[in-house]
Amino acid sequence: PVCIFSDLYFPWTVDIADELHIPRILYNLSAYMCYSIMHNLKVYRPHKQPNLDESQSFVVPGLPDEIKFKLSQLTDDLRKPDDQKTVFDELLEQVGDSEERSYGIVHDTFYELEPAYVDYYQKLKKPKCWHFGPLSHFASKIRSKELISEHNNNEIVIDWLNAQKPKSVLYVTF
């Protein structure tokens, strides 16, 4: 293969890419705004202020816009004490490591939707970031019957696969 294009929750694929001396491109279904908020919550930790009440709002610092949350709006994962590590925490650490080691990141969004956050996030991250989409997962499911009836087989996909060098394409899904 010439590269591995894999979901962020398959961090182990970066090791395979390293072994094969090919780039790994991380696919992130989330928008830049979401990832920017999560990054800044992790770095600045405004939700960990002493004596922060469930009903009090706090600002996530450093973002292009003023984004406020209440502690009660955060997931349990963000609210738990720092010394309580979970399996999910371990996975997120692996994801973060694989993100840094990846050639780049593709986000399922488009610039016009969130230009300030695209620019902000691209300044934060060392890997190259690209955006394309949105890839509508629901639309593809809705149209699947229509597409099946239009093409009655997978001719386009089969033709493309047949045009590739032998053993150059690997499709993995779980």
From TrEMBL:
Q: Does the keyword Metal-binding apply?
A: no
Keywords assigned by UniProt?
Answer: Transferase
UniProt-recorded Gene Ontology molecular function terms: transferase activity
Parts forming coiled coils: none
Which residues belong to the signal peptide in this entry?
none
Hey, which family's this protein in? Belongs to the UDP-glycosyltransferase family.
Question: What is this protein's name?
Answer: Putative glycosyltransferase
Q: Which organism is it from?
A: Solanum tuberosum
